[in-house]
Amino acid sequence: MLFVGTPIDCFRITSIKVRWIMKRPNLPALGLELSRRTVLGAALSAPFVLKARAQEYPTRNPRLIVPFAAGGPTDTLTRIAAERVSPLLGQQAVVENRAGAGGNIAGELVARTDADGYTLLVAGQAILAINKALYKKISYDPATDFTFIGMLGVIANVLLVNPKTVPVNSVAELIDLAKKKPGEISYGSNGPGSLTHLTTAIMAHQAGIELLHVPYQGAAPLTTDLLAGRIGMTFTAASAAMPLVRSGQLRALAVTTGKRSRFSPELPTLVESGFPTLDAPTWFGVVARSKTPAPILAKLRKDFNTVITSEDYAKALEKQSIEIMVVPPETSDEFLAKERKLWSDAVKVTGVSLD
């Protein structure tokens, strides 16, 4: 009789001996005599073998799965981190790009891998806070399938208007104008359910104003139409926004970070502008599979934290207009729960649902 379970469960212990009967086609039954001491020794030693393997981690190259194509800001951020964490790990961290389905391809890939620390996911709001509410069906649960390691960086998004079509100088003036012209001010986004869409929708909902949503497939056509006055406003990354502001083509009203951005300290935050819950920059962290052994998680967190808090890393990110935000492991669950609440509420406000 074959038992399935732990090493001890797999055997029926009698008194002194254990008899395991294996029957094979066309072969006589094979009797294997094992002492109870042998069986119990093997069972009790298993956790120590696993612990030893965890302490040897890593013995091969860990992978960092990026949910975007190569060359974008998230890919660049990941490669900056990978270059600096590899010497600490003692193995080269390999960056792999798995773009598509709003991050779900990458999320599902990592959720199916072994919890051994060799396949890590670079994830932001989409995978960890939005997609569960946005998509009708996804095969992973961000709350239970992943364990947070560290925050790689945050990107401040800027609220931009074309001053020729939306002649305002502050968020308060924008709200007043929108109340006078309900549904007439249009805003561009990177598509239904995107961060730009949800940020604008929750802002409009909280302010009690009606805006016209115009979705785009990519930032380039959106920016072209904003400059031409075909749409009135949008949110976009500070690195792309500020050159257009300094040239006088567009006007910046606020940033989405909780504190003023070091790259544009003259701009107020949305929090300062009357939206206390809209601390909503674009952020990306590293997560591992849940149930990854504690010694492996401890090493990953230690090594990534060493990188994230280094002056060299901060200088490299500054060149990309990316800021540091440290989220300690002990507060990561609270941080992610807050993010899921904010963005699931935003999805409900929009009523959008994707297949």
UniProtKB/TrEMBL annotation:
<dbReference type="Pfam" id="PF03401">
    <property type="entry name" value="TctC"/>
</dbReference>
<comment type="similarity">
    <text>Belongs to the UPF0065 (bug) family.</text>
</comment>
<dbReference type="InterPro" id="IPR042100">
    <property type="entry name" value="Bug_dom1"/>
</dbReference>
<protein>
    <submittedName>
        <fullName>Tripartite tricarboxylate transporter substrate binding protein</fullName>
    </submittedName>
</protein>
<dbReference type="InterPro" id="IPR005064">
    <property type="entry name" value="BUG"/>
</dbReference>
